[in-house]
Amino acid sequence: MAPSSVTLNVKMTCQACVKRVTSTLEALPFVSRADVSLEKGTATGTLQGAFPGCDCPKPDGKCPCGDACQCAATAMSKALVDAGYVVTPCGGGKGPCPAVALGTCTCGPNCECGDDCQCALCPGVSVKGKTIEVKVEHALVLAGLAGLALGYALGKRGAK
Question: Model-level pTM greater than 0.70?
Answer without folding.
Answer: no
